[in-house]
């Protein structure tokens, strides 16, 4: 099915309702949630465990289809897109930074990124050039031939970020990127995300438990019991 085009860029969620089966009834994970993230800005999403943060990120990534509501990514309304079209949209328009890097142990740093370009059917030469460019962007140009076991936790997370940005996504979704890092390395990773968001004009959503990071973002929203509350700063 052909998508309709919205009038704005960035990421927009409107009146999202998401429920899961729960015994004989249904559990509401997201309750009429609306969120807009402008290109070139970072919105942090905070809240206690089980509040709906992960569900919000999954809906924004089009990994889960909500019961109702609309998701718009970089001007594309995802309502009614086929599974194949959603996969193509994620590959070209959405970057996801998972909590754990999940790097392939047998691949070098540059090869981890080249896999993403291969999925986008770039030529091997162009894929390697782009991968090296992104490694330079995250300060790891000199680590291109190292494998995950030869890298620190902070370096692996930087490769995770570079991999998510390989296809120049309009939307970047980041799940607890500093949870396994000490404060200094966590601050460096957030600084990197901030820099790349501004440079690439990306709409970034950052899910975090670390309220010390909030001073560096543009907007903060809190999820409680599946609902967004007024912005809460540290």
Automatic annotation (TrEMBL):
Alphabetized SUPFAM superfamilies for the sequence: P-loop containing nucleoside triphosphate hydrolases
Coiled-coil region: none
One Pfam family this sequence matches: ABC_tran
A GO CC term attached to the entry: plasma membrane
ABC transporter domain residues: 11-234
Domain of life, per lineage: Bacteria
Protein's UniProt name: Putative ABC transport system ATP-binding protein
Organism encoding this protein: Allocatelliglobosispora scoriae
Origin organism lineage: Bacteria, Bacillati, Actinomycetota, Actinomycetes, Micromonosporales
